[in-house]
Design goal:
Blueprint lengths: L10 H14 L20 H20 L4 H20 L9 E2 L11 E9 L3 E10 L5 E9 L9 H19 L12 E7 L3 E5 L2 E4 L16 H11 L4 E7 L1 H12 L3 E7 L3 E8 L15 E5 L14 H8 L8 H6 L1 H19 L18 H8 L7 H11 L7 H33 L13 E6 L1 H5 L1 H15 L1 H4 L2 E5 L3 H12 L10
């Protein structure tokens, strides 16, 4: 029976990784005997042994990265434990449970013109949102810009000046006679900043650390709203940054705008995170702030979740050690779109080195970190053709292969893609069950009834990777049981990180309430 031990100055992660390192120090290669079927052509004799070795490497990943239901239930329990710790003191928990200061949840009656700026990872977006009340819908216009690689590791003012220039150009281009502000209304902007911050109030927050391969050192500890405000003032814009949220909190607000049963949100995209509605009395670390309601949205930052029950493999350990932020974001590195393709690449690299998986010529491109994106993994995983031609096309083009990939090897690649995606999806499901357990929505309530729970969900991984989505839903039903599962609705967020930020700007606008935080 495993026992968690806290090591002063190192915490559970080091113990967890150490335990896994010990477990993976001796790797046992599995071999499968191949029965002979006279009705089917045999694999060429020179192909049999390397192919069996490659299959063994994939099966070893499946075994060491296995996610049986009992393990997943332990992960869900660990998540609840860390949530409770984080509500008391975020410094003692790997799940920080950050107070968002979003305590006025949308009713669906909000109206007006608002702006949103969404910085999430690869790109950032500027949006103009016109709220017309739930019955009349939402009108919006947006523009997306790529974040240049050099700005992800440069100076803080360079990033914010770059964004402010584009916000100013967008607003000046888009504002016209039909999109004028209401009389006496000042421009209000909701800022979606999808990195860990410690909010001090709804429109103020200091950056704790970067994720998603950002690393702007002089931004740590600075108030990102102040930085954005200074940059917007340089552009001569009269606009108030009303709310600072992350994409997960925004997704919850957007879900709540349309459905009052929405109690949580999950992002499964480049990164991963979750937020949920907590009773204020449960937030023991909340001091000196009196919200206008009994509820508060908590930004969990669950990507940083760590547990002895996470099925870490040697590939995960090496990926983490070589990442920009070692020993952080462990769950995110196992389940999110930024990393699934990289895990597949690392397994393929071992298959090429130990089993000559790609033939006589070793593909040098396979040694390039992150060259294999999760979008490519999804495309190969989705190939249903009889000859798996798309698998061959993707790998040949990406890795500049000279030798043809046999059908048998293409099947092994699909098997690997499924193993990596299945593990990520099932761990995501376990984390969701942790939230449901914390809210008491994983079973019948005190009244003996099951209550409908809506979870807003967003992110390209969930939206576009069908096999990942299928594995996640299957795991939820397996963990919750058929009856409870059908009362949990995963509602696809229309655009939580953009529209959600504008909705929060509306609910916390000085024009919608006399109360200022």
């Amino acid at each position: 029976m495993e026992k968690e031990t806290m090591v002063p100055g190192m915490g559970k992660l080091v113990v967890g990784l150490g335990a896994v390192c010990a477990a993976t120090a001796v790797l046992v290669m599995k071999r499968r005997g191949q029965g002979k079927n006279p009705e089917k052509p045999l694999v060429a004799e020179e192909e049999e042994e390397p192919l069996a070795k490659a299959v063994g490497i994939v099966e070893e990943f499946e075994e060491r990265g296995g996610t049986p239901a009992e393990r997943l239930k332990k992960v869900a329990d660990d998540m609840v434990e860390e949530m409770n710790r984080g509500l008391e003191d975020e410094e003692t928990s790997c799940v920080h449970m950050l107070v968002s200061y979003v305590h006025r949840l949308p009713t669906g009656d909000e109206v007006g013109l608002f702006y949103a700026l969404d910085l999430g990872g690869t790109n950032f977006r500027v949006m103009q949102v016109i709220l017309q009340g739930r019955e009349h819908g939402i009108r919006e216009n947006q523009r997306s810009y790529e974040v240049p690689a050099e700005l992800k590791v440069g100076k803080v003012h360079e990033l914010f000046d770059y964004m402010a220039e584009r916000v100013a150009a967008f607003i000046r281009e888009e504002e016209g006679p039909e999109k004028q502000l209401l009389p006496g209304q000042k421009r209000e902007l909701g800022f979606t900043f999808s990195f860990p911050v410690r909010n001090r109030k709804i429109n103020s927050g200091t950056l704790l650390r970067w994720t998603k391969r950002f690393r702007i050192e002089d931004a740590i500890g600075k108030d990102v709203v102040e930085e954005l405000t200074k940059a917007l003032e340089k552009q001569g814009l009269d606009i108030n940054v009303t709310a600072l949220v992350n994409d997960t909190v925004g997704a919850l607000a957007e879900g709540r705008y349309y459905n009052q049963d929405c109690l949580a949100s999950v992002i499964l995209g480049t990164g991963t995170n979750a937020a949920y509605v907590e009773h204020v009395k449960q937030i023991r670390k909340l001091h000196g702030f009196l919200p206008s309601s009994d509820d508060m949205v908590i930004n969990m930052e669950w990507g940083n979740f760590q547990s002895m029950n996470l099925p870490l493999t040697e590939y995960d350990l090496n990926l983490d050690a070589e990442s920009l932020h070692p020993h952080e974001q462990i769950l995110e590195k196992m389940v999110s779109g930024e990393y699934l393709g990289e895990i597949v690449r690392r397994v393929l690299l071992r298959m090429a080195e130990e089993a000559s998986f790609f033939g006589e010529t070793f593909p040098a491109k396979l040694k390039v970190p992150y060259i294999l994106g999760t979008d490519v993994v999804s495309a190969m995983h989705s190939d249903t053709s009889s000859d798996l031609n798309l698998v061959a096309q993707k790998l040949t083009s990406l890795l500049e292969l000279h030798d043809d990939i046999s059908l048998e090897r293409r099947k092994v690649v699909v098997k690997l893609c499924d193993a990596v995606a299945r593990r990520g999806a099932r761990l995501s499901a376990a984390a969701i069950v942790g939230i449901l357990k914390k809210l008491g929505r994983d079973t019948k309530g005190e009244d003996g009834q099951l209550h409908r729970t809506v979870i807003a969900i967003d992110g390209a991984l969930y939206r576009k990777y069908e096999q990942f989505k299928k594995h996640l839903n299957n795991a939820l039903e397996e963990l919750l049981g058929h009856e409870v599962y059908h009362m949990v609705i995963l509602q696809l967020a229309r655009d939580g990180s953009g529209i959600g930020a504008a909705i929060i700007a509306a609910t916390h606008s000085k024009d919608s309430s006399d109360e200022r935080d």
